[in-house]
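Researcher: Go.
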Amino acid sequence: MDATPTFCTIIPPHVLDKMATSEDRALSDLARATLERDAFERTHRRLTTVIGAPSIAGAVASDKPKRTIYDAKHGTTLPGRKVRGEGDKESKDQTVNRASNALGATFELYLKAFQRHSIDDQGLPLNATVHFSQRYNNAFWNGEQMVFGDGDGDIFLDFTLPIDVIGHELTHGVTQYTANLTYFGQPGALNESMSDVFGSLVKQHSLQQTADQADWLIGAGLLGPNIHGDALRSMKAPGTAYDDPKLGKDPQPATMDHYVTTGRDNGGVHINSGIPNHAFYLVAEALGGYAWEQAGQIWYDVLTGGQISPQASFADFARLTVSAAHTRYGDGEAHQAVLKAWSQVGVPTSTNGADLPRQAGQPEGASGQQG
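Model: Structure:
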């Protein structure tokens, strides 16, 4: 399967759109500047996909990561100036150190839990740029590397603060090299959900938290002190992560009863991802212990197993997780937990005509691969 690079940002477009309509000129200007930069980077990603992205040298399937951190010095030229390489001593700049540590934590989860050697399973070097642009309220994976803004310090803080944000973005790379889920509609929401699932597992693994100890929040610590909210998303309770006049209210549904049909955000990829997110949380909660050991293994088996279509619907994915749970663990607790979780969020796992309406997935002729 050919990997199609995506451009994926951690802050959903609907949040920036809400900020951009604010009567507070400073806030709206800030949001518009971020949206314009995102649009430029997205277009650049598409162009490099068309003409061919540069090959990345130095890939060796090793049990050690190969990390390089660059500093854009508030400019927008990538990657910027190299400030820390693999094995170098810590920087005086804690943003650099956090980026390096989180790249390492993501590498460790995939290696220790799933025996995967970096993003592509071939030892892909992990590169990241910090201090991108000025007061840039986002972080993204552009198909080749990570990029972090510093935030504006009011609405959003430094984007290297939440380790799961970095795990989320790097997992877009894993998906790029495996299932290659189309970034539109339900397959796009699955793409986003995969990043939330494994981003959360990166945090849980680094803290050695069990499922009941985890907060199941994505981006906790990123919101400014005056923002009413805990994080960008909640896998445990989708729709409750934030409710603030500047950001709006978290629109994520937890079940298919509240599935959002929209043409914005590539068909609501950052919104409807709440449904498969919640299904994963329910499986992990039911099984207990470390979530990467059983629930994470099932999801990883489907992501990397080669059976999932790039245009997979929620129902397609759900059936594959049921099959994967049975293949790995038999008819026992894990298999039953997966069946129950998808039932609770309203996604069918049978093939007897009970599937979801196809309009919830990718419409004919839709193309994507941009975040």
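Model: Residues 78 and 290 are 37 Å apart (CA to CA).
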